[in-house]
From TrEMBL:
Keyword annotations of the record: FAD, Flavoprotein, Oxidoreductase
SUPFAM superfamilies given in the database record: FAD/NAD(P)-binding domain
Family to which this protein belongs: Belongs to the FMO family.
InterPro entries per the UniProt record, alphabetical: FAD/NAD-bd_sf, Flavin_mOase-like, FMO-like
Protein name according to UniProt: Flavin-containing monooxygenase
GO molecular function: flavin adenine dinucleotide binding; N,N-dimethylaniline monooxygenase activity; NADP binding
Domain of life according to the entry: Eukaryota
Lineage, opening ranks: Eukaryota, Sar, Stramenopiles, Ochrophyta, Bacillariophyta
Organism: Pseudo-nitzschia australis
Length: 594
């Protein structure tokens, strides 16, 4: 009885000092464990008392031969319900302790899967989403008619088949009879179903905009009024992170909305805010004197507004080609300006119907609406509207001089540094950036990045043969980050703006993140290689088409064959509407194979 009195007294003193936390650590990962701050005398007394009590209890248990019971971890129970893919093993320390708390900024495709993976790893996620509950999840896939701040437009259809646009444990499926290239509404519906099926919906704080991120650098004064804890590591590189955010109360269209400010401290933060919010406009000599209209593709929605116009689309990648195609059904003529345009041997651009493929736009001629495409092109057409289909810059408005960290994001460079493996902040890996890379198969790529981050945070020891990796020391991380930032990306020759480009290089990155997470088994390798096979097939079909011309590559239905790292591609008949415009096909509608 004296022991229990001692425990009560010590416990009372400790509770008066701070909230009590239980350690979370891994013998294989010394970076990840709960921090108790200074070891007070009361805590030492408490631990001694608990140890004595435990010894006495064990002695009594052995004497009476009473059976003991071991509770299964929540993550073990969760994993037992998964039927498709085997994920990482359960951390006994994480499941038995107070979970780490991780903030996720953004409720789009990256944020949702990050929340799901964190939850499955015994980590407590909180998702901050600026849209309303009525608008739902989806991020950029949430279409709003005539929006000037979202890249989604009414006629958008994916340029990747749905068999790739899926998370591993939530396959989209395909039957060979329906169109694999789906609409934005169908993608949003898929994400909504995923959020509900995986228990992510209840983790989202809607109408909450993060306004400030601050690294606390393990400063006890800064965290003495919160609930304690933290993640320790070499050179204090796993600090806790404070977020400030604003929430809106009331209905989504209510003019009486009340804005309230909040702050909270988290063990880690995953930035999943995407990179489609800050339009990148190219520098074109004379553009300031252009007499016509200039817009960015982020404001595009309805092609009929260009009826009878001559339109220039600057940028020939996915958005440029798709917009040129849509607009050509209404415009008088469309010019698609692209650096990959073949050399013009006779000064005339390559053209199909009313779409001309021209070289890079070099200038707007003085006091006019005429455009020059360089000395190789004789045409200098007079243009009514210029649409910049030139991509986006990275933007993190909540990271600034108050954030206590070094993060370089220069407009026009399209490069974020210093990042280790283009995922973790090199100095403070309790801050991760998921989904920065472009030209990738996004959903499964985000999923593997989230697995890698969760593995480090949870400290999941796993099988020594499959999970041997932990983050290297600070000096190594900084050195690798600097080298990566100056590499110019994987292509030769490299360019600063291609730092986060992957394309055909993404598959090794997927395998690397899987190895980091300890989930790189044979089934996953086959899954990734099947993705590659389908990606290469659809990409080759797209490459052989005239940009801005008919998108016949989309009229295929794919069936995956993971076991053989292969697929079936079944061509479908293209239904034509009025005036030869392709009639929209719902992926859920029956279409007939040729």
């Amino acid at each position: 009885s004296g022991v229990f009195v001692l425990i009560q007294q010590a416990s009372l003193r400790q509770k008066q000092r701070s909230h009590q936390y239980t350690s979370v650590h891994s013998s294989r990962n010394p970076f990840v464990r709960r921090s108790f701050g200074n070891r007070s005398k009361s805590m030492i007394t408490l631990r001694i008392a608990i140890l004595v009590c435990t010894i006495l209890h064990l002695g009594h248990s052995f004497a009476t031969k009473s059976p003991t019971r071991t509770a299964s971890s929540p993550r073990t129970n969760e994993m037992s319900r998964l039927s498709a893919t085997t994920f990482g093993s359960v951390s006994s320390s994480a499941s038995a302790s107070t979970p780490l708390r991780v903030a996720i900024i953004g409720g789009g495709a990256a944020g949702l899967v990050t929340a799901r993976v964190m939850k499955r790893n015994g980590i407590e996620p909180t998702v901050f989403e600026k849209d309303s509950r009525e608008a739902g999840v989806g991020g950029v896939w949430s279409y709003k008619p005539n929006s000037k701040s979202r890249p989604m437009y009414r006629g958008l259809r994916t340029n990747l088949p749905r068999e790739l646009m899926a998370y591993r444990e939530f396959p989209w499926g395909g039957d060979g009879k329906t169109m694999s290239f789906v609409t934005h509404n169908e993608v949003k519906d898929y994400l909504s179903k995923y959020s509900k099926a995986m228990g992510v919906e209840d983790l989202i704080r809607y109408r909450s905009t993060v306004t400030q991120l601050e690294i606390l650098q393990n400063d006890e004064k800064k965290i003495e009024n919160d609930d304690g804890g933290g993640i320790e590591g070499d050179d204090s590189s796993w600090p806790r992170i404070k977020l400030e955010w604003e929430s809106m109360m009331g209905g989504p269209n209510n003019s009486d909305d009340e804005k309230t400010s909040h702050s909270e401290v988290f063990d880690a933060v995953c930035v999943c805010n995407g990179h489609y919010a800050a339009p990148a406009n190219p520098i074109i000599p004379g553009i300031e004197d252009f007499k016509g209209k200039i817009i960015h593709s982020i404001t595009y929605d309805d092609p009929s507004v260009f009826e009878g116009e001559t339109v220039l689309c600057v940028g020939g990648r996915a958005s440029g080609a798709d917009l040129a195609r849509e607009i050509s059904h209404f415009a008088k003529h469309v010019y698609l300006s692209d650096t990959t345009c073949p050399a013009l041997t006779d000064g005339k651009p390559v053209a199909e119907e009313n779409v001309s493929w021209v070289p890079r736009t070099t200038a707007v001629l003085p006091n006019s609406s005429r455009i020059s495409f360089g000395p190789s092109c004789e045409e200098t057409p007079e243009v009514d509207t210029i649409i910049f289909c030139s991509g986006y810059d990275y933007q993190f408005p909540f990271i600034n001089e108050r954030s206590n960290l070094d993060l370089s994001v220069v407009t026009g460079e399209r490069r974020v540094k210093p990042l280790y493996e283009q995922l973790w902040h090199a100095q403070y890996p309790s801050l991760a950036f998921i989904g920065l890379q472009h030209s990738v198969v996004p959903f499964p790529f985000f999923e593997l990045q989230a697995e890698a981050v969760a593995s480090q945070l949870a400290g999941d020891s796993g099988d020594s043969a499959s999970r041997p990796w932990t983050l290297p020391p600070l000096e190594n991380r900084m050195e690798c980050a600097e080298k990566d930032a100056n590499s110019g990306g994987p292509k030769e020759p490299g360019r600063v703006q291609d730092t986060h480009f992957l394309g055909s290089f993404q598959w090794e990155e997927c395998l690397k993140y899987a190895r980091f997470a300890g989930v790189c088994d044979e089934d996953l390798k086959k899954y990734i290689m099947t993705n590659k096979a389908i990606y290469d097939h659809s990409g080759e079909a797209r490459k052989n088409l005239f940009p801005g011309g008919p998108d016949t590559y989309r009229y295929n239905s794919y069936i995956r064959d993971n076991e053989n790292e292969s697929f079936q591609a079944i061509p479908l008949q293209q239904k034509m509407g009025v005036e030869g415009i392709p009639e929209p096909l719902s992926s859920g509608s029956e279409v007939h194979a040729n």
